[in-house]
Amino acid sequence: MIASANLPDFALWDRALQQHDQSLPCLVLDQDRFLANLALARSRAKPGTGLRVVAKSLACLPMLDLAVQQLGALGVMTFSAAMVQDLLLERPGLEHLMGKPLPVGAAAQVLAQRETAQDQVIWLIDTPCRARQYAELAAAFGIDLRVAIELDVGLHRGGVEPADLAAMITEMQQMPGLHIEGVMGYEPHLAKLPAPLGKSAKAAVERALCAAADLLKQRGIEGANGAAPLVNTGGSLSFANYGGGQGVSEVSLGSVLVKPQDFVLPATQGFQPALFIATPILKYRTNNPMPGLERLSALLKWHRRANLAIYGGYWKGWPVHPQGYGYSGIFGRSSNQEVWTGPQLATSPVDHFAFLHPSQSEAVIPEFGEVLVLLEGQITEVWSALSHLH
Q: At the topology level of CATH, where does 4-27+271-384 sit?
């Protein structure tokens, strides 16, 4: 759970929402905290290492724009055909590295609908079969495709094993239409491993990345416009660990910039939670009898607990305000009128706002469809979300 010292002043946020005449559940972004996180990320990245913003974690154009601008990012990492189409339309100069291999049919749809995709998208290749499919796709369109090889550096979710990378490059270099620019090796498992395993796993990742960087140079592989070959790795929990010393040309990050609940970890110390769900409180009772056990309720420990009911519910997040409240074990989860239980309050919170800290940002932002921007105690803007993730 997040420490209360890192939480915003929710009384201030409540007043801001009331002044904005907000009456429905919404997402609120603290712009000052977001900008502070961007500055901290920029300061922690190793000098000379390129930064790439993970689009699905900040699925809102103004948020993405701020992140790209403030970080001086090379571009974005994108994970869906629909989102890459949206961004190619709205931001045609933005470069995309695909974060997962797309079925060749989905890639074909992007190329057919967005002419800039040929130049702006680096497609991810994970198997010889997919490489052949993309070579056939390039031939069908009469173009060259920019591609990167997914390298399995220890996550074992797919991709080319380090020992097989040389053979994969040899095979792909013989396929007309594919321009190999480098590799992408994702390593989120490192942050989840216990210390004894984590140290050896981290060393294995670094060996694989260094070896890949050396191999790419030996094979004469270059990035766009003659740049050094692409070696992408890292994530919100580890972007600050990598640079040229590990053979890495760029790192990716996204979620840490708003720090949802799943990213409240030692690796993100210093970053501030910046995005919260706000929802009106509909009901409050200081002493709820237990359904079906009304006569016994006074004898049970629950009789000194209070309940409140919010507008909506079942979001990916955890209650953080009113302080001390959590999901009711009696009523369970509900997407209609969720009940929270906690200490009795001095005054009724009805018609004020309850707040949740989202567990992640990538599913929550599109679900709400817009983000209310809080700046200096006022709601100053409403930003539309990118709706396409899959």
A: Lyase, Ornithine Decarboxylase; Chain A, domain 1 (2.40.37)
